[in-house]
Amino acid sequence: MTPATALCLFFVFLVPLAPAGLALINTGLGRSRSAAHAMLASLSVMAVAAIVYFVCGFAWQGSAGGPAQSLQVAGKQWSWIAAEPMFLRGRALDGSSASLAVLLQMLSVGLAALIPLGSGADRWRLGASCASAALLAGWTYPLFAHWVWGGGWLAQLGVNYGLGHGFLDAGGASCIQALGGLTALAMTWILGPRRGKYMAQGIPAAIPGHDAVVVMFACFLALLGWLGLNAAGAMLFTGAEPGRVVLIAVNTTLSAAAGVLATLAITGVRFGKPDVSLCANGWVGGLVASSAACAFVMPAAAVAIGLVAGALVTLTVAYIEWPLSIDDPSGAISVHAAGGLWGVLALGIFARFPDSIPGQWLAQLIGIATLLGCVLPLTYALNWVLNRFYAQRVAPEGERQGMDLYELGAGAYPEFVTHNEEFTQP
Amino acid sequence: MKLLGLLLLAAGWIITLAAVVLLKTTLERSVFVMSGIGVEVLGLVLAVRAHQPPKGERG
After folding, report:
1. Is B6 in Cβ contact with A380 (below 8 Å)?
2. pLDDT digits (tens, 9 = 90+) for A37-61
3. What residues contact residue B39 under an 8 Å CB cut-off, 6+ apart?
4. Residues of A at the B interface (Cβ-Cβ below 8 Å)?
5. What residues of A are in contact with residue B48 (Cβ under 8 Å)?
6. Closest approach of chain B CAs to the CA of A124, in angstroms?
7. Measured CA distances, A41 to A44, A52, A125, A144, A393 (Å)
8. Which residue of chain A comes nearest to B53, CA vs CA?
9. Which one in A223, A325, A344, A419 has a CA-CA gap of 20 to 30 Å to B21?
10. Under CATH, which number does the domain A3-64+90-424 receive?
11. Tens of pLDDT along B8-51?
12. How far does the CA of residue B10 sit from the closest CA of chain A (Å)?
């Protein structure tokens, strides 16, 4: 194993901290009566995603230069799906860069599958969330990730049509974050809002998260996870030299910092005091937006990317809740879909390459159009069909009791007793 | 409305793909790619509105 591969392996080992952070954020922003369910669902979804990706996901995603199905369009090859053997057959898991990419993908697909869980909190059945994760890990993610990271047609836009270096995404702002965020949007449409979230006139009721400390701690975990994700992704998928990892880490940190400061400022001005849950979302939004361009921009640009991401997340969280009436308890649509799409576009705006081939921003726009026009309808259709055969939303009784008692038979905090009278009486 | 919104999303993507394949200059491609994204935004707006619960029956 070369020193570069060992360094990359170290970064890949940091990646599980990103789903750990997201799982804690989703849980902390949900109700206490669904906390155990949220954590178990996170673990189960990661497990299902890893197994399904092993069975067929990697076979359809593949790697650049590997066997693939292509269409001949106006004299150009459009690689649209890989044709690797299933069950990772023939793939040497020997510490090479190619094998590290498999490991990173297996963790990444779990992260993508975890994102919608926050949006479906307090009403998404455990079995249905696992089935939905299987669809994502077995079809949606591999298809789009092949186009971006597996030598597919988006990656080839530069070679085939002279559009910059083709669609670029170092750390997964599109493949992981935007894909997961758009799946979260599809799930909120299919599941509908939580009971009691919207009053008769459509005014949303505030349903605060139950543990702000866990949410903020999860932000620190997420930073470590994203450092690994961005550095390993840049090395494995864009050929970044080991010397660039410092720049990548600086950019990732700066983007998160700018994201949370933008949120602090906006919520401070808007509400008079900073909002804890929105600040957590601003931090993660900065991380999400940093992913695409972390290896290609200077630190000042990373700050700008984070500032816009923080502002975007803060404003879209409020707009999505009302007037759009989309009940997204964790803010996953704003953080991962809006933040991810902004990160992809930001690469086209801020990235600087030594050879300066024009058209990079257009390649990035085509990637965004693909996410909105192909991935969103696809993930919606798959989950809509699943919902026809296996209802995704829990019964009204389950929502009333809480997901812990209804689906697991026990709560997360059995010794937790609330004394409402002590808090409400003077 | 839901179906129309989703169809518009897909139609916007197809416009984008057609622009890449059929057009030659960066300017032409840019205009058509942005038009495609415009159609997608329209589809997204329709899909969002179609999924809004009717007033009085929310939650």
Report:
1. yes
2. 999 999 999 999 999 999 999 999 9
3. B8, B11, B12, B15
4. 73-74, 76, 157, 161, 163, 189, 192-202, 205, 324-326, 358-359, 362, 365-366, 368-370, 372-374, 376-377, 380-381
5. 324, 326
6. 15
7. 5, 16, 9, 24, 14
8. A325
9. A344
10. 1.10.3430.10
11. 999 999 999 999 999 999 999 999 999 999 999 999 999 999 99
12. 4
Domain ranges across chain B: 2-51
Token pair for A170: 């170092």
A177 Cα to chain B: minimum distance (Å) = 19
Give the domain ranges of chain A.
3-64+90-424
Please state the three-class secondary structure of chain B as a single string.
CHHHHHHHHHHHHHHHHHHHHHCCCHHHHHHHHHHHHHHHHHHHHHHHHHHCCCCCCCC
By CB atoms closer than 10 A (0-12, 13-18, 19+), residue A94 is exposed
Q: Do B26 and A358 touch (CB under 8 A)?
A: yes
Helix axes A17-29, A97-119, angle to 10 degrees: 0
Q: What is the pLDDT of residue A394?
A: 97
Which of B10, B11, B33 lies closest to A365 in CB terms?
A: B33
B3 burial via Cβ count (<10 Å: 0-12, 13-18, 19+): exposed
What span, in angstroms and rounded, lies between the C-alpha atoms of A41 and A29? 15
When CB atoms are compared, the residue of A326, A366, A380 closest to B16 is A366
> Can you tell me the ipTM of this complex?
0.95
CA dist A11 → A4, A7, A248, A345, B8 (Å): 11, 7, 12, 25, 41
Q: How far is the C-alpha of A388 from the C-alpha of A379, rounded, in Å? A: 14
Q: Do the Cβ atoms of B33 and A362 come within 8 Å?
A: yes
Cα–Cα distance, A283 to A65 (Å, whole number): 36
pTM: 0.96
Cα A205 off chain centre by: 26
